[in-house]
Write a structure and sequence with these properties.
By secondary structure, the protein is α/β, with parallel strands linked by helices. Helix content is 33%, strand content 21%.
Length: 231
């Protein structure tokens, strides 16, 4: 059999990437394309049929991935007194109140998630212009404004992933690492899709989930069949 040229192979691969696959098939393909020298992140992108200019078409939530994210999530907690002690005991990386606010205003950003007790929101609110654009502003809807700091910290470090639709109606998130087994990645992908599906807003009209694709950090996107039973 004749050996395929580079252009032919690339064309066939590109054509294959345009096909819609089951979650399992897509994961298998993405893992085979993850050939970088580092442990690539497995990312998911979902295009939703929503208009985020309308308040009743916002999509936001949090999902606990069954197999974690593979990331070491650094958590900052705004709390004081007993709640600050509880946060430290639960494994928070940094805990503070006004002092933490001033530190962040000074440029400190060595954290991936921010959690706050309700009584600290007046302080945290002053960081809106810093935390908001980075998607780090605590919010009760995703469980990051809560008196139960122990649960929030454990969720953040154990695989809880927040999601929020961008203006274009697209949601992006990391759902694992290339070093994970295919079954673990597929379970994480499915859990994420299910969570976004359940978060369908009341104002959404027509097709809600228009397109789903997964990829590794350096690999091409592989489409997932949105009409499949589990997608």
């Amino acid at each position: 059999m004749a050996k395929l040229g580079k252009r032919t192979r690339a064309a066939r691969e590109a054509s294959d990437n345009l096909k819609a696959h089951s979650v399992e098939e897509a994961v298998k393909s993405v893992k085979s394309n993850a050939t970088a020298k580092f442990d690539e992140t497995i990312e998911i992108a979902m295009n939703l049929g929503i208009d985020t200019r309308h308040a009743d078409q916002q999509v936001r939530g949090v999902v606990s991935l069954p197999n974690g994210t593979g990331r070491d999530v650094r958590v900052a907690v705004f709390a004081k007194d007993a709640k600050a002690e509880e946060a430290t005991a639960a494994g928070a990386d940094i805990v503070g109140a006004d002092d933490l606010m001033e530190k962040i205003q000074g440029g400190f950003m060595d954290f991936d998630r921010v959690i706050a007790t309700p009584d600290m929101m007046a302080v945290v609110g002053r960081l809106g212009k810093v935390l908001g654009p980075r998607g780090l502003m605590p919010n009760p809807k995703v469980g990051t404004v809560t008196p139960d700091v122990t649960k929030a910290i454990k969720d953040a470090k154990g695989g809880a992933v927040q999601f929020k639709a961008e203006k274009s109606g697209v949601i992006h998130a990391g759902v694992g690492k290339a070093s994970f087994g295919e079954k673990a990645i597929a379970e994480n992908v499915q859990a994420f899709i299910d969570a976004v599906a359940k978060a369908k807003p009341a104002g959404a009209k027509g097709t809600y989930i228009k397109k789903i694709a997964i990829s590794s950090t350096m690999g091409p996107g592989i489409k997932i069949d949105t009409s499949a039973p589990n997608a």
